[in-house]
Specification:
alpha+beta; 28 strands
Length: about 550
């Protein structure tokens, strides 16, 4: 006898729908859904879930890890009346939301302590270091906790590019990004404008459309309106600047086709063939990517100030130097056993629920009674190898000599980059990031000694700023290799699409009374917004379950 099928259907929330999209298709699928709702690239949520009702008195939640996900969960659940306790292995809060400054110490998996000795007031964001404006969840807490924010210059056209392996006259030559961008746009605009003028697009465009396109190309490429040719422009760069000069009008007798600019003299354009030979034009896009726009944001005084904001709100809930050893559960409770690394004592805590933000690769090695399916999911993502190196300079030569304020320069060498600070402008000293490595390059970089890292960075960076790095290096540097850092062991979790589709739904679902959070289970691993929104998702599930109990 067949069972009667219920005609009732369950309505899922927008958050649940987006969660499913991200679980199966990653960030791109989630963004497609958002676009369908005319939400563009905005975060899936701009504020934490509105948790209705109060839990039973004494409802306790254990949270493993005092990173942004763990502190978000503790803060929001605490507002609703839950008794929250965070167990954190490090002696400080923030997880990977760290900034290196005088006295800051991190520890490698081999037990080596790395202590920063920068001058007072100097710092480096060796963890998260930039925020796009659409990461609304992060900005929610920035506003709530009163964390001052300033502009972080992601892209600066005055930065240099120099590719030694490039072909032609531009190979090994230091040029400004602006020069390549202007010339490439100028020449390509010229080609399209002339093709349009010659009738190549007559079947595609009306006369009026062709006129509008030509007008656009003249403006976009700084073309000569008379013959639609690109002859260079002062906007690619200047060789002379005289604020008291004049701009003389066009000679009515025809001796000059353009006004004579005695204020600024344009640098000479590169030949189109030279740019094509070098491949430098392929280094840029006309529009920056949505997650790395030209203008981004950072916390004043270091990105760890975001973590400090959380800590001020819930610091009394955190137990530091507490290294989790065991995670077990039954039908009613969760038990976490940990070692107090200050005195070596073994302690335990019990709670109704547990939210774990421990990196999956570390949790998978601990003693747990999670299902075999869950353990397989924890082992699925690859540990992203990531390293950074920063150098303190005793003179801001990039500003004084090269007019570069923020942004970056590159040699095109994997792992090497010169990233200029977006703070302390016109000061005496500054911190330059001179290595940002991923994958194989990070593995190789991580095997170098500190001296070898510094020597390599100075040698490479000297090619962009000849004579400056060796002269002005202040003999103070800080390096981190996230894959070799204790309690992290990775920069972030790197998911293959097939593994994401198979395992992410498992990790986002309750595993008994254990819930997973952190950017590792979000659609945006490595970003603070992923950590925060993962916490929002899981506290909503815990509260709904608690209300039904």
């Amino acid at each position: 006898m067949s069972k009667t099928r219920s005609n009732q259907s369950r309505t899922i929330t927008k958050r649940e729908f987006l969660e499913g999209c991200a679980a199966f298709g990653g960030a791109s699928a989630m963004m497609t859904a958002l676009n369908g709702w005319d939400m563009g690239i905005a975060s899936a949520a701009e504020a934490p879930p509105n948790l209705m009702g109060s839990p039973k008195k004494g409802s306790k939640v254990l949270i493993l890890g005092a990173g942004l996900a763990g502190m978000t969960a503790a803060y929001e659940l605490g507002l609703r009346g839950y008794d929250c306790k965070i167990i954190e292995a490090r002696p400080f809060a923030g997880g990977r939301c760290q900034s290196s400054r005088a006295g800051f110490t991190t520890t490698t998996v081999d037990g080596e302590n790395r202590t920063c000795d920068f001058d007072e007031g100097q710092y480096f964001n060796h963890g998260p270091w930039r925020l796009p404006s659409f990461h609304h969840a992060v900005f929610h807490y920035i506003r709530k906790f009163g964390v001052p924010i300033e502009i972080m210059v992601q892209e600066n056209d005055l930065g240099y590019v120099q590719y030694d392996n490039a072909s032609g006259p531009l190979g090994g030559r230091r040029v400004r990004k602006r020069e390549i961008k202007a010339d490439m746009r100028g020449y390509t605009s010229e080609l399209l404008a002339k093709l349009t003028d010659q009738g190549a697009l007559d079947e595609k465009l009306t006369n009026r459309d062709r006129e509008k396109l030509t007008d656009y190309l003249i403006r976009e490429g700084f073309l000569d309106a008379k013959d639609l040719s690109y002859k260079g422009t002062v906007h690619r760069g200047i060789t002379k600047f005289n604020a008291m000069g004049t701009i003389d009008p066009i000679d009515p007798m025809g001796s000059s086709e353009r006004p004579v600019n005695n204020v600024m003299s344009a640098s000479k354009a590169f030949a189109f063939k030279e740019i094509l030979q070098s491949g430098l034009g392929n280094s840029f896009q006309g529009v920056t990517t949505i997650d790395h726009p030209s203008t981004m944001y950072q916390a004043v005084g270091g990105m760890d100030q975001i973590a400090r904001g959380f800590e001020r709100a819930i610091g009394e809930k955190i137990t530091f130097d507490a290294e989790v050893l065991e995670l077990k559960q039954d039908e009613d409770n969760v038990k976490v056993t940990y070692r107090d690394n200050k005195n070596g004592k073994i302690r335990s805590e019990n709670a109704n629920f547990c939210i774990t933000t421990i990196p999956l690769g570390i949790l998978s090695k601990l003693d747990t009674d999670l299902s075999a399916q869950c353990k397989e999911a924890m082992d699925a993502p690859r540990k992203m190898t990531v390293g950074k190196l920063s150098l303190q300079m005793n003179r801001r030569f990039w500003e004084e000599d090269d007019n570069i304020y923020g942004g970056s320069s590159t040699l095109g060498i994997p792992g090497h980059t010169v990233i200029y600070p977006s703070n302390g402008y016109c000061g005496k000293k500054g911190i330059i990031q001179s290595a940002y490595t991923f994958g194989r390059a990070a593995v190789v970089h991580g095997k170098l000694s500190m001296k070898q890292k510094v020597d390599q960075a100075i040698k490479r960076s000297e090619r962009i700023h000849p004579g400056q790095f060796s002269k002005h290096y202040d003999n103070k540097a800080f390096s981190i290799d996230w894959h070799l850092t204790k309690f992290s062991e990775a920069g972030w979790a790197a998911w293959a699409p097939s593994d994401r589709a198979k395992h992410m739904p498992i990790l986002r679902a309750p595993q008994g009374r254990v819930y997973f959070a952190g950017d590792q289970v979000s659609g945006l691993p490595g970003w603070q917004v992923g950590a925060i929104e993962s916490a929002w998702t899981q506290i909503e599930k815990i509260h709904a379950r608690s209300m039904k109990a």
